Amino acid sequence: MSTRLSVGDLRANVTGLVLLPEDEGYAEELRTYNLTTVHAPSVVVGAENAADVQAAVKFAAAHDLPVAVLGAGHGSSVPSTGSVLITTRRLSGLAIDEGARTARVEAGVRWGDFIEQAAKVGLAGLNGSSPTVTVVSYTLGGGLGPFGRKHGYAADHVTAVEVVTADGRLRRVTAESEPDLFWALRGGKGNFGVVVAIEFDLFPIRGFYGGGIFFPGELSGKVLHLFREWTADVPEEMSGSVGLLHLPALPFVPEPLRDRLVAHLRITYLGDPAEGERLVAPFRALGEPIIDAVVEMPYSAVAAVHNDPVDPLPLFEHGALLSELPAKAVDEFLRLAGPDAASPLVLAEIRHMGGALARPPAVPNAVGNRDATLYNVFLVAAGGPPDAKALHGYEQTLIDALAPWSTGRRYLNFMFGGDADPRTAALAWSEEAYPRLREIKGRYDPANLFRINHNIPPLR
Description:
The protein is an alpha+beta fold. The chain is 26% helix and 22% strand. Strands 10, 11, 12, 13, 14, 15, 16 and 17 form an 8-stranded antiparallel β-sheet that branches. Helix 8 runs antiparallel to helix 10. The protein is globular, with a radius of gyration of 22 Å. Its cofactor is FAD. Pfam families: BBE, FAD_binding_4. This is FAD-binding oxidoreductase. InterPro entries: BBE (IPR012951), FAD-bd_PCMH (IPR016166), FAD-bd_PCMH-like_sf (IPR036318), FAD-bd_PCMH_sub1 (IPR016167), FAD-bd_PCMH_sub2 (IPR016169), FAD-linked_Oxidoreductase (IPR050416), Oxid_FAD_bind_N (IPR006094).
């Protein structure tokens, strides 16, 4: 049977689009946030429902092709050449049960849309910093957000997962129905199937004290050293980070922040605003800020804490997890990302972890590297393909400089295309969890159909 005829049969069984590279609309269907990732699948299926996903997975299995998934948000950073790629942006179902404080969200829903709907009924999810990331993909990778120190990872609060596994079955997986698969899906991201929807608990968060303070770059050292001391004893209700930003002179960047280094303190405090103001006061005493936007704000405005860009960009990213942050580590960070460095980085961030992020959830999951991690380092550079080697090299130099204080592990949602080697990808999970993940992978996906990702090879 020819591929063309087989695709004809696939089209007959799919409600949505089925596109080959020569078809009109192919390139548009592959649009994504990070412009450095080039997708070139053999077939694209624009799924409109779970049945479309099932048909695509069965087609891929029959033709011995890997399955890739591209959501509506920031998209996969692993190239999908030669795959059957399923786009999930049309899976847009979103239902909130106000009384039960739960939600069911399909794979194409972005956090911005969810936040808008949840805020109307005084509820909140454990969203990330960017409103353009999809709820499902973010959550399956752990989900590290602005309320994490108080409530943990987003994956910790998932109660059910609807997933199409390698055999083409649509399963509703819970802790009671298939406990091993449920454990693996929450933290294993796309390794075990195509998730079409998740259900999770919500929180009665109507507002918080938070936002960002932008300091001039010459205060970066004072801000980061204070942050190091400050995080030693702030309560779990306080989540914070400092990002050293060097933003371009583009229209989406506020004029006072253009083409200069700034230190951006970002905080959320789930407590009395007066106490939050007291906790932030030491930073305000450091010097005159460029912008001080830390105020009482509604949950609907949570994206303003980080002010992440929403338009597609060519980005190179790297990260590390730290077990401690002594003064020497801050000095090394400043040496390579601070005001006296010839740094190409758009962002160099240190994020405070600990609190509920360090504790196991009520229902265990595969989100790894919790207990030894006190800080997360996240680096971003922007540039085209010719810049890749130099930008990656600079990021690696900074990560290497922090090695004495690193756990040696990684956070899955902050791993990117260059981290796709399974030996590197394995750093996203604990040494205890990884063999169990491989065993479960061997049961549910023995042919490694779902390998266009940070792959967990099946145990054979």
